[in-house]
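Checklist before submission:
- one chain only
- standard amino acids only
- sequence pasted in full

Submission:
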Amino acid sequence: MERRKALKNMGMAFGYSLAAPTLIGLVQSCNSKKVLDWAPQFMTQDEGVGLHTLVDIILPKTDTPSATEMNVHVFIDQFAKDVLPPEHQDFLKLGMDKFFGKVLSDTQKESLAELNEEDFTPALSTYLKKRTKDVEEAHDKAIGEYFMAIEQNGSAVLDDEIARYMFANSVRDISVWAYKNSEYVGEEVLAYLPIPGQYVPCDTTEALTEGKAWSLS
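Returned file contents:
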C-alpha cells in the first residue's frame, strides 16, 4: 500500500525529512528554552512539559548537550504545527494522548507536570523495545488501514497500543534526527569535514573519524 510506504518514508508520521530549513534553525543554537518560558504552539502547555521531559530521556545531557538544550522539543512542536497536514496532526495527537494517558494512569498522577524521568522511562522503554521488523510491518498495515478509513469515512479507530508504540518511536526518531542536524552537534560532536582534504582510498572509520559518524553525508 503506497500510503504505508509514504508513512514509513515520513519517519513514522512526522515527515521530518521534509522539514523546512527555517524549522531546522530552531536546533541551531545551544541556548535552551526553559520549559517555563516556552509556550507550545501545537501542544498544550501540559503536553509541552511532558515532551520536554521525554526528549531528555531519549537524549540526556552527558559530555554533549541534552535534547532540550538543542531545542529539540521546540522543533517538534513547531514542526507539528507548521508542516504536518491535518490528518497527521490528528494522528500525532491520538498517539500522544494515548501514551501520556498511560503514563499518568500507571503512575496515578494527574498532570504531566508532576511526572519525572523515572515516571516516563518504563513506558518509553517498553514501546521502544517492541520495535522489530515484524512489529513494524504489522503496525504499518494497521496505520495504512486507519488512514484509508479516514479518507473514505472521515473517521477511524486505531488500537491504543499501536498508537502508543508509534508515538514513542516517532518521538525517538525525530529527536535523534533533529539533534544530529543541529549546528553544534554537526560540527562539534560528529565527524565534520565540510571541505574535503586528503583522499584516503582505504582505511577504517575508526582511523579516519575516531569512530564518529560523519556529520555530512
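Reviewer check: The mean pLDDT is 77.
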